[in-house]
């Protein structure tokens, strides 16, 4: 009986050690991002690494309806993802522009350039290892151009899903609307006023409060950033996870 208990103890210890090594190795690898396009139209994702982070395998690509593509990001990576729409790229030179989310590079690859607002953004800061938290959010601070969802998988901690599944282009007020309802501006971009941009004397959580416009965004997409200091309900954490970014996710979630 004693030998059986000892064998069971050894087996359990080995399994626990293997799982520990798996988690440790997984965290040391950073995070895998998978981008899925569930829109009924083509999306051209853009990727921008923040200063101090290396570029991923690509900074912009073509993703047809129903398509997906994955990338590995190293530990300590931070950056953002977005979807460009209405693009027209020359198949030979890869040069062209997009109606929304254009990064100004005049090419399929964004090459270190960010998105031209209005655009829906998924933002990430990946931890340094298996015990370090990742931080992520979906932001409407720069406006909105398409629905987006972020799901964390295989990690530990809260690891909540976040995003905006509502069609804000249909709900967009006239004063924020981009022609043909292809995107919805933020109040900051539309009016260039400090109280909307959280700048100048409004550059603090105490002085910059939600506007009627950011409140509308928040009501439609309660987990997304609606203005610059919308941190408490909009920033999510997870440890050792991989992430799925979905354009046009199901509206039944």
From TrEMBL:
Domain of life according to the entry: Eukaryota
SMART domains attached to this UniProt entry: THN
Listed transmembrane segments: 6-24
Keywords: Disulfide bond, Membrane, Transmembrane, Transmembrane helix
Disulfide bridges in this chain: 39-248, 87-98, 103-110, 159-238, 164-221, 172-184, 188-197, 198-208
Pfam family, one: Thaumatin
Family that this chain belongs to: Belongs to the thaumatin family.
Protein name according to UniProt: Thaumatin-like protein 1 isoform X2
Organism of this sequence: Arachis duranensis (Wild peanut)
């Amino acid at each position: 009986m004693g030998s059986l208990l000892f064998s069971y103890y050894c087996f359990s210890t080995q399994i626990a050690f293997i799982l520990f090594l798996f988690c440790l190795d997984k965290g040391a690898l950073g995070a895998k991002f998978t981008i899925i396009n569930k829109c009924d139209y083509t999306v051209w994702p853009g990727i921008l690494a923040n200063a101090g982070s290396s570029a991923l395998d690509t900074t912009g690509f073509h993703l047809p309806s129903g398509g997906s593509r994955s990338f590995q990001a190293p530990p300590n990576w931070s950056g953002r993802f977005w979807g460009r729409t209405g693009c027209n790229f020359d198949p030979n030179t890869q040069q062209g522009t997009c109606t929304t989310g254009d990064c100004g590079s005049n090419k399929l690859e964004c090459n270190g350039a960010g998105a031209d607002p209005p655009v829906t953004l998924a933002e990430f800061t990946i931890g340094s290892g298996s015990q370090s938290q990742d931080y992520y959010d979906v932001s409407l601070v720069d406006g909105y151009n398409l629905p987006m969802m972020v799901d964390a998988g295989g990690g530990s901690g809260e690891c909540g899903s976040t995003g905006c599944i509502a069609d804000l282009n249909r709900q967009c007020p006239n004063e924020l609307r981009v022609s043909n309802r292809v995107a919805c501006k933020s109040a900051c971009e539309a009016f260039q006023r400090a109280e909307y941009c959280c700048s100048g004397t409004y550059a603090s959580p105490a002085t910059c409060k939600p506007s009627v416009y950011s409140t509308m965004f928040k009501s439609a997409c309660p987990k997304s950033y609606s203005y610059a200091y919308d941190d408490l309900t909009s920033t999510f954490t997870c440890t050792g996870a991989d992430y799925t970014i979905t354009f046009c996710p199901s509206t039944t979630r």
